[in-house]
Amino acid sequence: MTKQQLCKRYGIHLGLTMFAAMLLLPILTPYLLAQGFVVSQIAIAMVVMTAVIIISEVPSGALADHFGRRRLFCCSLVFALLTNLLLLIATDFVTLLIAVSCWGLNQATLSGTLNAWFVERFHEAEGEQTLNQGFAATYGLAYGIGASSAVLSALFLAFGDHLALSTLQMYQLIFVVSSIGFILLLPLTFHWVKEVKSPAQQRFKQALSQHVGTTLSTVRQPALAKLLIALVIVIPVSASIEKFWPIFVHQLEQVDMDAVAWLFPAVMAATFALNGVAAVLSAKLCTLLNQKLGQAMAVAHLLKLVALVAMALAPDLSWFVAALLLFFLCFGLTQPAQLQLQHQLCDDSVRATIESLGSLTTRMGGMLGAALTGALLNLVSLPVSWLLLGALSLLGIVLLFSPSLNQQDPPEVTEPEADPASADLNA
Predict the structure, then answer these.
(1) Which of 12, 345, 399, 418 has an alpha carbon 20 to 30 Å from 134's alpha carbon atom?
(2) CATH top-level class for 3-195+204-407?
(3) Region Disordered: what ranges (predicted)?
(4) Other C-beta atoms within 10 Å of 255: how many?
């Protein structure tokens, strides 16, 4: 299989995964409100979900590295299906907490699984593409498919009243369609994702000990450590805008949130489409900068701050939405470069773990952004809090210019030797 064929197949698979998830994500909060939950209960549920992700993120990556990426990905699909089914019947707080716990396990087992598989297969495939070009092609296709689901969700909510369905019934129907999507992905995964490399033959306890050693030696690399620190610093402003921009829309226009409910999935659809464009532009940016990936990320984050200033100064809704979409486009420019940089700094044996660690770092940055925004809102307005978080991100941008993050030939990661006395406990 050529690299181009692999990118197309994985892009379609990843896009279908996004399609099933993005159908319901924009309507989750209004659905829970329609089910009778109050904002405080929803906020607690989101905290529980985040806690589950943080606890299980890196261990799930270790399981994927040892037992196989496809198996963990299929587990994530099962958890996604359980989440949908539990949310459909959730009328009490306990059921809601169980549902979001399953959602957290879905997100934890999803991160680092098939991306790690893709990188390994990409290196084996025929062709001259670089890894960031491969990720650009893959995510460009995937985001296009994912965007279509958000468009369908927005159109259904905008015109669904002609079908004589209540808003709650429309939400429930979207959940059912999403669940069907996750069910269909299971056989497709077994058909398309081939586990060429079988799981290690060592017993898990010994393999885990060796795995931890390799992971620690990888994370101790100055380049990877700087990358993870930079992510924690630059992510808060993006996470804050992603979570709180609907509130700013309400403050800006003073309209009822139900009156602009269609806007939220519509913006998500546009964001996904722009992320597909950004993935292609990112590969060109990396080529322009001679594959200096840290610099490519830094330039994208600086452009993102320009869009942030435009958002903060927005006089009306149309100006704000245009600046918001530009912000998400610039943020999307960072992903292919980040993924290549992250993967070229780690060994195959811990690839899924390192990606899970990167995902965990991003989530911690997101939690930091939400917490800092909440604290700053006691002192300043929402747009001013975004500007302050944007100023904080400049520290992370400086780190991205470090020479160790801009080498064309990164240092190789060597796996620590196993204890000869226990090298093969199955012998």
Answers:
(1) 399
(2) mainly alpha
(3) 408-427
(4) 12
Compute the distance between CA of residue 213 and CA of residue 31 in angstroms, rounded to an integer. Answer: 45
Cβ 415 vs Cβ 214: under 8 Å: yes
DSSP 174-197: HHHHHHHHHHHHHHHHHHH----S
Q: What is the percentage of the chain residues whose pLDDT exceeds 90? A: 19
DSSP letter, residue 418: P
What is the rounded distance in angstroms from the CA atom of residue 8 to the CA atom of residue 2? 10
Question: Please, are residues 389 and 236 in contact by the beta-carbon 8 Å criterion?
Answer: yes
The pTM (predicted TM-score) of the whole model is 0.67
- 3-state SS of 339-402 is HHHHHHCCCHHHHHHHHHHHHHHHHHHHHHHHHHHHHHCCCCCHHHHHHHHHHHHHHHHHHHCC
Q: How far apart are CA 58 and CA 52, in angstroms?
A: 11
The proportion of the chain whose per-residue pLDDT surpasses 70, expressed as a percent, equals: 81
Place of tokens 């587990």: 75
Q: Give the Cα separation of 274 and 237 in Å (integer).
A: 19
